[in-house]
Amino acid sequence: MKVFFVGVVKADSKPATLLSKASDLSSFSFFQRSSIQDFLCFFATTIAERTQPGQRQGIEENSKPDGLAGTVITDQEYPSRVALSLANKIMDEFSLLYNQSQWASMNSLVEIPALQKLLVDYQKPQQADVIMNVQQELDETKVVLHKTIESLLERGERLDSLVERSNQLSDQSKMFYKTAKKANSCCIIM
Predict the structure, then answer these.
(1) Cα 26 from chain centroid (whole Å)
(2) Which of 33, 109, 24 has the alpha carbon at shortest distance from 74?
(3) CA-closest candidate to residue 6, choices 124, 95, 91
(4) Do the beta carbons of residue 54 and residue 35 sit within 8 Å?
(5) What is the model's pLDDT at position 186?
(6) In angstroms, how far is CA 59 from the centroid of its own chain?
(7) Three-state SS for 18?
(8) How many Å is the Cα radius of gyration of the chain?
(9) Angle between helices 113-121 and 80-97 in degrees, nearest 10
(10) pLDDT tens digits, residue range 122-170?
(11) What is the per-residue pLDDT for 62?
(12) How far apart are CA 69 and CA 8, in angstroms?
């Protein structure tokens, strides 16, 4: 699971303008990175431009009704709920730094260190997302509980076996006692 690109796009006019971005292209060859970076920027602006305000679409994209869109590009394995949560956080970070009148007049890229931090934090969705973290802990607990129940059932079977053997031993000792009593009753020892 990997997040390749996060960005904020001004999508209220055509062509859409990429206002801020962060990307992790370390999984690609050094010589391919610039081409892939250009493609991701193009793709993010195109998707934001063609998406209706408030609609979620395609490669995990989230758009706000005010013309600002948060884009997250991931691989197919990445959980969509976590990607949409990341898009919301990106939008929140951008909105904290710039109000609508400020970003409406922007026409070039601005660097926001929080985007790079979010990109790094969300590379492992189980650690970044509270719900996924709780789900993972629940799954681990479920496995431990299943193992415990299986061992308890095995112990119960062993206890039943021990009780049965104990009853057999008790029956055999009673028979031995009766046989020994009969054998001793015929003889008098002086």
Answers:
(1) 21
(2) 24
(3) 91
(4) no
(5) 66
(6) 18
(7) strand
(8) 35
(9) 160
(10) 887 777 777 777 777 788 888 888 888 888 777 777 877 888 888 888 8
(11) 46
(12) 6
Altogether, the residues listed in the chain come to a count of 190
Kindly state the DSSP code that residue 99 receives in the 8-state scheme: -
Beta bridge mates, 21: 7
Adjacency order of strands within the sheet including 56-57: 17-23, 3-10, 68-74, 61-63, 56-57
Pairwise CA distance, residues 41 & 47, whole Å: 10
- DSSP string of 41-96, one letter each residue: HHHHHHHHHHSPTT-EETTTEEE-TTSEEEEEEE-TTS-HHHHHHHHHHHHHHHHH
Please report, to the nearest 10 degrees, the dihedral formed by the alpha carbons of residues 50, 7, 1, 40 taken in order.
60
Helix (H) or strand (E) segment spanning residue 189: none
CA distances from 86 to 3, 11, 120, 132 (A): 10, 19, 11, 13
d(CA 125, CA 52): 27
- Phi/psi at 4 (5° precision): -95, -35
User: Which residue is it, tokens 């005010």?
Assistant: 66
Q: Give the dihedral sign, CA 57/58/62/63.
A: negative
Region of 171 on the Ramachandran plot (φ > 0 left; ψ -120 to 50 alpha; else beta)? alpha
